[in-house]
Write a structure and sequence with these properties.
Blueprint lengths: L4 H18 L4 H20 L18 H4 L13 H9 L7 H11 L4 E4 L6 H12 L9 E4 L3 H14 L7 E4 L5 H8 L5 E4 L1 H9 L10 E5 L1 H4 L5 H8 L7 E6 L4 H10 L4 E4 L9 E7 L5 H11 L4 E5 L3 H13 L4 E4 L5 H12 L5 E4 L12 E6 L6 H8 L9 E7 L4 H11 L4 E2 L7 H4 L1
Parallel strand pairs: 1-6, 1-7, 2-4, 2-5, 3-4, 5-6, 8-13, 8-14, 9-11, 9-12, 10-11, 12-13
């Protein structure tokens, strides 16, 4: 008897073929042979499915340990749908980051999650992947709602969902304030499986009876600390009333103030707590300050532009008026520059965001509208033209550089009035912001 396992497993199939050749087999057996041969052909052809994917070139830039210190898991270890895996690999994801390793398997079990992780470590995919996996494509109902605080983040998150789920027949919709309510209502008459948006608009549509959430089994709150500010929290609490009692809630953010903990105690059921932040500042970001007088700031900025190796930069101001004035000054200095702030028309903001993300311009001047979760990996320099008033704002601003563990540089222009804020933010974040040296080594922010 042949002990080869492969030979043994093929024995019955060979037996069917031999009987068929002898003419002593029933029609049903012949059908079984055909099905077996067909299934074998499918299996053999599907084994090289990864080889046929259009995978982008590997990102060889240096990464910090907060995205490389993984357990060694693979996306295939989570038994995801093959169509979803295809989207994951074609998006350029190679292996799960630490926040993805912690979140994805827990989310797939249906448990509530309260997750704290640094900006730029793969938070968006950590909830998009389990959301897409759990959606039933054959059920024409909203099954996942993802809440975000800004339209820009809503557009970015929905794009990630569409790219990851491009081989799935899943319909993704974005809805936020400042856009046509009528268009949203008409869109909701078509199938929608996953809804991304801001709390006020989704609540409005739910109250009108056009956004039906009785089959919504998962609610995701990205940038949860901002969503639980007085501006949004009442809308979110009302919105939860439209969800089924057995819904799953996933909360993600870089900071967890008291409001988040209170919300967790009230609405999450035995949540799984994930905390991947030993300290609040991002690893891989080198931080400097330069003491300047207000009238010297533009000259100092010009010097930074001439000396730094900038892929793309974001320059933050504390007011809308200063954003427009500074953008004009930068343009007059001869540098390409876009600007974006909350008082701009929505379509204009969308176009600026899209063009900057696609590399049409090197520098962007903005207010804190732009600090929440926006992911533009080419940004390696952040400049606080106006120093922020609190540590949370500073953290989110600085997090715009060094996305997904790459290196970045933050330069803060400090006036005499800012000196106490600088000291306080250093203390609260447990970090050191050093005085800017005459020469900055490119290796600390360009590798």
């Amino acid at each position: 008897m042949n002990a080869n396992p492969a030979f043994q497993s093929r024995g019955p199939q060979q037996q069917y073929v031999q009987r068929g050749q002898l003419g002593g087999v029933a029609d049903s057996s012949a059908d079984e042979v055909e099905k077996t041969v067909q299934s074998e052909a499918v299996d053999s052809s599907s084994q090289d499915w990864k080889a046929r994917l259009k995978i982008p070139p590997a990102d060889t830039r240096y990464r910090t340990e907060d995205v490389t210190a993984t357990k060694g898991n693979e996306f295939e270890d989570y038994f995801l749908k093959r169509e979803l895996l295809m989207g994951i690999y074609e998006k350029g994801f190679e292996r799960p980051s630490p926040i993805q390793e912690e979140s994805i398997p827990i989310a797939l079990t249906g448990s509530d999650i309260l997750a704290r992780a640094k900006n730029g470590t793969g938070k968006t995919a950590a909830f998009c992947i389990p959301a897409l996996e759990k959606i039933d494509q054959d059920l024409n109902a909203i099954q996942v709602v993802i809440l975000v605080p800004t339209r820009e983040l809503a557009l970015q998150t929905s794009q990630v969902c569409k790219e990851l789920g491009k081989h799935l027949n899943i319909q993704v919709m974005v809805t936020t304030g400042g856009t046509s309510l009528k268009d949203d209502i008409m869109r909701l008459y078509q199938p929608v499986h996953l809804l991304v948006g801001t709390p006020g608009r989704i609540l409005d549509l739910s109250k009108k009876g056009v956004c039906i959430l009785k089959d919504c089994a998962m609610l995701v709150m990205d940038e949860a600390d901002k969503l639980l500010s007085p501006e949004f929290q009442p809308s979110i609490e009302q919105l939860i009333g439209f969800l089924p009692g057995n819904r799953q809630i996933l909360m993600f953010s870089a900071t967890f103030p008291v409001t988040v903990k209170d919300f967790k105690d009230r609405y999450l059921q035995k949540p799984y707590i994930i905390n991947l932040m030993d300290e609040l500042t991002l690893k891989g970001i080198t931080q400097f300050y330069a003491f300047v007088e207000e009238r010297q700031k533009v000259h100092c900025l010009n010097t930074l532009f001439s000396k730094l190796q900038i892929n793309q930069s974001i320059i933050f101001c504390n007011s809308v008026n200063r954003v427009e004035l500074l953008a004009k000054k930068i343009t007059e200095l001869g540098y390409s520059c876009f600007y974006i702030h909350a008082k701009m028309l929505q379509d204009h903001r969308n176009r600026v965001f899209h063009d900057f993300r696609n590399g049409a311009c090197r520098n962007l001047v903005c207010t804190d509208l732009f600090t929440r979760g926006i992911d533009i990996q080419a940004v390696n320099v952040v400049i606080n033209f106006d120093f922020p008033k609190n540590s949370e704002t500073y953290l989110h601003r600085v997090g715009r550089s060094g996305r997904f563990g790459h290196l970045g540089l933050a330069v803060n222009l400090i006036t005499y009035e800012d000196r106490f804020n600088l000291y306080r933010i250093e203390q609260e974040l447990g970090t050191e912001i050093k005085q800017i040296p005459p020469h900055i080594d490119q290796a600390i922010y360009c590798r």
